[in-house]
């Protein structure tokens, strides 16, 4: 898996789950420092989504 695939998974699962659970702004997203989590693509995606 690479950063692009990771972002696709986050987009399909993370954001819909946050909305469905009505979590609002009171949640923390946490991941470790493996390459797909620190890839430029991932960092850009998280920044654009304000995560």
From TrEMBL:
Classification via Gene3D superfamilies: Ribonuclease H-like superfamily/Ribonuclease H
GO terms, molecular function: nucleic acid binding
InterPro entries per the UniProt record, alphabetical: RNaseH_sf (IPR036397)
Protein name per Swiss-Prot or TrEMBL: Tc1-like transposase DDE domain-containing protein
Native organism taxonomy: Eukaryota, Metazoa, Chordata, Craniata, Vertebrata
């Amino acid at each position: 898996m690479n950063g692009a695939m990771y972002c696709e998974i986050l987009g399909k699962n993370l954001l819909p789950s946050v909305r469905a659970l009505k979590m609002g702004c009171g949640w923390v997203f946490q991941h470790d420092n493996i390459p797909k989590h620190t890839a430029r693509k991932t960092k850009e995606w998280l920044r654009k989504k304000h995560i």
